[in-house]
Amino acid sequence: MTKPAATPEPYTTVIGLEVHVQLQTNTKLFCGCSTKFGAPPNTQVCPVCLGLPGSLPVMNRAAFQLAMKAALALECRIAPFTKWDRKNYFYPDLPKGYQISQFDLPFSSDGWLEVVDPKGAFARKVGIIRVHLEEDAGKSMHDEAAGTADTRIDLNRAGTPLCEIVTQPDLRSPQEARAWLNELKLLLVYLGVSDCNMQEGSLRVDANVNLHIPCPDGSVAKTPIVEIKNMNSFRSVERALIYEAARQYDEWQATGAELGTTPKQTRGWDDPAGVTRAQRHKEESSDYRYFPDPDLVPVTVSEAEIAAVRASMGAPPTVLRTTLAERWKISAYDADVLVNQGREIVAYFEEVATRVGEGKVASNWLQQDVLRTLNERGEAIAAFPIRPDALADLIGRVQQGDFDTSRGREIFAEVLASGRSVADVVASLGIAAVGDDELIALCRELITANPKIVADVQGGKEQAAAGLIGQAKKKNPNVNPAKVRQTCIDLIKAM
Amino acid sequence: MQPAELSAVDLVAAIRQGDLTAVQCTEAFLERVARLDGSINAFLKVDREGALATAAAIDARRKAGKPLGALAGLPVAVKDALCTRDLPTTCASKMLAGFRPPYDADTVARLRAADAVIVGKTNMDEFAMGGSNENSAFGPVKNPWDLARAPGGSSGGSAACVAADMAPVAIGSDTGGSIRQPAGLCGITGLKPTYGRVSRRGLVAFASSLDQIGPMARSAADCALVLETIAGHDPLDSTSLAADVPRYTELLEQPLTGLRIGRVADHYAAGLDPEVKRGVDEAFAVFEAAGATIHEVELPHAKYGVPTYYLIAPCEASSNLARFDGAHYGHRSNPEGSHRAGSGGQAFESPLVEMYCRSRGEGFGPEVKRRIMLGTYALSAGYYDAYYAKALKVRRLIRQDYLDAFERVDLIGGPVSATPAFKLGEKTGDPLAMYLVDLYTVATNLAGVGGISFPCGFTRGGLPVGFQLQGPALAEPLLLRAADRFQRLTDWHLRRPKQIA
Ligand SMILES: [Zn+2]
């Protein structure tokens, strides 16, 4: 059912997103328990997050300020007064029988985040309706392996601070949605608000989608809005939206059903099957009986607190792209690639560029060698054995003409494999700068041995000198090919 | 010397001076519990061994010359709504039968730190919902003044155990009158402090915005002694007040000259028992004789107190009690037994929903279910504005009434209950009649201020009549001083029930 990307669709896809992001705090939102991922089940719990009778929540101000950081970076207005509400529903991973959330007075609202395709395919400013803070639920694990179909509950996650970010329906294609999510993730990771790790559940996305279909009579038909859940990567968000748009178009053609004629539907994304499936009606409609949590006092936020949080934010990716391009005279595309790799890569790049004294060559080495290697090794830059000073040393030797770039790459690989320094590797491979006298002697030898090439060069075919480079490398692998070529030409012309 | 005849203040002094050991004191009260509680049912759990061990340790420390806490050796009974680490905490519900919390309520921790001796957990209306103690899953408490009558509720066990001298002091909790009303019906003194004065941490929540823990004792001076220990800021209760705790026991001496006490005409409306009215009138006369002046004040919205309370409290309760679902702790329906229990062939959408329904259906009593349903309904989409939101508005008006009244008077006096203790079973068939037992007390909780109730006379039939004083926020020193002065001028609080003497 997926349609070929090249055919322009006869409709506009209208997408809004709801993103849940776990905040990178040390402790939970309403108790002192650790939020560290991966601990044995039910070891990071206390009476508060277990919902034991008599336990009371106390707000973690650090979590609130981290959420404010995200909201400010999303250009949201911070409410001077906000409160906590209870969202009531029964589920075994929700030990209190309600989730502490924010209903009618979210702590922030009315923001935006723009995503610009570096290749110019689109630029989209997406409105943020609201960002609110709430506590996460625990995890249910359905233990079918035991043969008992028991459900086991891990409450380590219960009470972890969670930001919910709700966008306007401003996105216009599945590709834009994926790109925007990448930009949001980048921003939140840059700010240190969240690690946005979808595998560990620290970022979760639901999408609302429908189609606007221009009709021959000039009117626009709108299909019913569908909420898609259970997408566990940005790629599956894109795939689910592509599938769902096509499905809605087919359904509209078949039934003509339009917005408002049916209640909002929820569909789950089945990743292996590549389809969305309608969820049972029960799972869709709930009356959460929100009301203000009487155990918590309202939160007031001063201008001074907002200013302090703003001051602690650092440059967001959008600003960094511009400053990086200007400071190091690299292209907007290169700056985009580097910034999208995260703050640590940018810092690595800037150190190399500073030592080398040039941005472009540092950027090339970063993109072509460092990033590729990190990808292959599945490693983060922090663990990368070649530190910026070593890479700068290597680049500097290439720039001095000690050896060419391809020889430099061999050295790069050897440094990586052996863990030795650049100087050590250069020495052990017998790579030493070839002196001028040595080079001239070698070239004379080659000229004598290759009368045919000499004749060609003398006849005006300078490119024939390239035939000597391979031979020179065989005799001395350390020679600089460009130098060999030029020296030979000069010697032949002087004959 | 009979420890049971001494006030808490005198007991603490006697133990401190070595005239009485903590063990002797504890044994004396435990002996009364063993002898009397079979007919009163004030205790759900008596911790004889734990209490005697604590008392012995205190005596040993005193002998060794080590410092002792402010309540060293004083036996204290604790309402079963407060969590106690080494004792069951059931809220008088089958839902929590056998539940032992892994921690102490802040109040219990403060009592232990002050070297009080926790003698046991007292009976109550299930989850503090009720005004007669007949809603206990473990049987009603009998009023020591007349065993055929209710002690009031929900802190009925705490009130009855003090009235029968089974403990010199007890801890209660008051959501709509649950300390003051049983204190009044049992002829003892009970203080509901200002909301937030005593930490709610570890108090199993009924209605979080109204619940408040307080002392129940034979006199205001004894209440002052206990409040000094249990009051104070708790950073782990967001609604706890940060204000310093005054030395309540040292603020009792000042005379009442010039004190302005308000009287509310509405308190005298139809339904007020003439014998209660007489007791209340006489109490006002005592205060006048002590130098106070009486002024008529109005609380125009107080008449909406009961309906407002019966929206806000059930709404909060419906959410607070959601955690009792059988999934994590407390009663879980036994799937094998459920066939016998029978559900009339009811179909459940999943085994999980069936477990929830059966566990809650079996674990909760009828009044708790009634209030959960009331609250769930009132918070539902389409009803929220008409019920819960409107109740919050009326609550603000009631709070403003109190602020206005306290511009003109220092305290407001009046009856605690419209009638003396009623017969067991008299109101159980009529929930609305039962809800009216809170008529004079709920507004205090809605306003978040403090109130104290103490005996001001007896009916011809020998039942105690209670008087209530309400004060502005944090006026506990004044409430205690006024009640203490009253008790220096009268001896109602010293009378003991003959039936069990
Ligand atoms: Zn915790």
Strand share of the residues of chain A?
A: 15-25%
What does the radius of gyration of chain B come to?
Answer: 22 Å
Oligomer, anyone?
Answer: heterodimer
CATH superfamily of the domain at 3-251 in chain B: Amidase signature (AS) domain
SS element count, helices of chain B: 16
Low-confidence stretches of chain A: none
Q: If you had to describe this structure to a student in words, what would you say it looks like?
A:
- The complex is a heterodimer of chains A (495) and B (501).
- Chain A has 495 residues and is an alpha+beta fold.
- Chain A contains 17 helices and 17 strands.
- Chain A has three domains: 12-308, no CATH class; 315-428, no CATH class; 436-493, Arc Repressor Mutant, subunit A, CATH 1.10.10.
- Chain A is elongated.
- In chain A, helix 3 runs antiparallel to helix 4, helix 9 packs parallel to helix 11 and helix 14 packs across helix 16.
- Chain A has helices spanning 47-50, 61-73, 174-191, 234-255, 281-284, 303-311, 317-328, 332-340, 343-356, 359-377, 388-400, 405-418, 422-428, 436-449, 451-458, 466-475, 481-493, and strands spanning 12-22, 77-78, 81-82, 85-88, 98-101, 108-116, 123-135, 139-143, 150-154, 161-167, 203-214, 220-222, 226-231, 265-270, 275-278, 291-292, 299-300.
- In chain A, strands 1, 2, 6, 7, 10, 11, 12, 13, 14 and 15 form a ten-stranded mixed sheet that branches. In chain A, strands 5-4-16 form a three-stranded antiparallel sheet, with no helix packed on it.
- Chain B has 501 residues and is of the alpha/beta class.
- Chain B has an eleven-stranded mixed sheet, with helices on both faces.
- Chain B has a domain at 3-251: Amidase signature (AS) enzymes (Alpha-Beta Complex), CATH 3.90.1300.
- Helices cover 38% and strands 13% of the residues of chain B.
- The complex binds zinc ion.
- Zinc ion is lined by residues 28, 31, 33, 45-46, 48-49, 159 of chain A.
